[in-house]
Amino acid sequence: MKRFEEMVAQAQQSAEAAAKSEQNAKSHADNAAGSAQQTAQDVTATETARDDAERFAENARQDAVATAEDRKATAEDVTSTGANAAAAGQSAQDAAGYARAAEQAKTDIDITLAGTLKTVNHLSEIAAAGQNAQQESRYNLGLKDAATMDVQSSIYDRTEGRVAMPGAFGYGAFFRTIKMFSADTVAAKAENARDVFVWGDASNQQVHMTMAQAGELVAAMAQAQVDRNDEIYRRQREKKEALDTLEDLDVIRAFNVE
């Protein structure tokens, strides 16, 4: 009986130990599960940290590249700044040269302008002298103000400001046709004419004369016409000389040319 009780006690102790072992095993299992979960979390955190590290490394690499490019750009800017400074210095020298050239050009322009003004004055003097010489030459030729006027279109033209048309018989007369003859030509033609013809004199009386007498008469008439023309020319010359002394247009127009 005692042995049975001991076995029951041992069995009870074994059951308690087993329950305790089961509890411990469960606790260990829970701990293991928690450790596994923690390990998984640690793995995830490790992967995240690794990704962050890789990202940080890439950013660092990109920053390094950007820094290198910035340094290169800075070096280029420094070089460009030096070149710009040199160009600015050259531009300043060029500007100074241009300023000197402009000042010299202004001086040259002033000299040229002064010469031009002198030339213009000389040309004005020459033009005035030319006008005076032209006027004087007209007066010396006896033309006076008539040289600048239009000539009348016919002997009946009385347009104001026009000069009378000169002719062999005075101002205002002109020939439409011209015939040349002489005593010799008349005599030559008379040889082929009749020996006698009837001539009407000033009193309308018939006069009979031979061809020789007619030739002499024609020659005398021709000579009389020449003498008459000489007289007309002399009178015209005197009228012209008298007209040359006049200067007023109204007086010239009223001048008697008969």
TrEMBL record:
Residues 1-90 are annotated as: Disordered. Residues 48-61 have a biased composition (Basic and acidic residues). Residues 187-250 form the DUF4376 domain. It comes from the Bacteria. Residues 34-47 have a biased composition (Polar residues). This is DUF4376 domain-containing protein. Residues 9-22 have a biased composition (Low complexity). It comes from Salmonella enteritidis.
